[in-house]
Amino acid sequence: MLIVEWIGIGVLALLLAFGVLVLRRALFVRAGGTIRLSVRTSSAVPERGWSNGLGRFVGDDLRWYRIFSFALRPKRTLTRTGLVIVSRRSPAGQEAYSLPEDWVILRCSWPGRETVEIAMAATTVTGFLSWLESAPPGEVSTRLGRESTR
Fold it and tell me: How far are the Cα atoms of 50, 109, 136 from residue 142, in angstroms, in the given order?
């Protein structure tokens, strides 16, 4: 009888985990302002370290959630205050295997903070730049660096 109880507990745990993932996805879809977004979490190895996720615009923040995570809190929050887009490029080398072909990689930095690379669909970049530029005057200093050719 002990084995049947453990199997029941295991099935219940799997159903609960599945329910949390479904609930999390439903909250994102219903809330709107959600985009597919990859963030380079580690720059230790060139062209690697990309993690898939969803970005959600909330006021002055772009909150990034990993796709394969049970966490209800964002893994990383990008604030548009002081955000500078240093460069824009297409995926190259090993990145071409982990990111879709039509995606664009933006290298972003803030004064006194780390530089981060984000990747999104080329059609999404327009919306991202609109969000970035829609801040009240004087709060955002955006600058687009040299753009690499495709």
Answer: 24, 10, 13
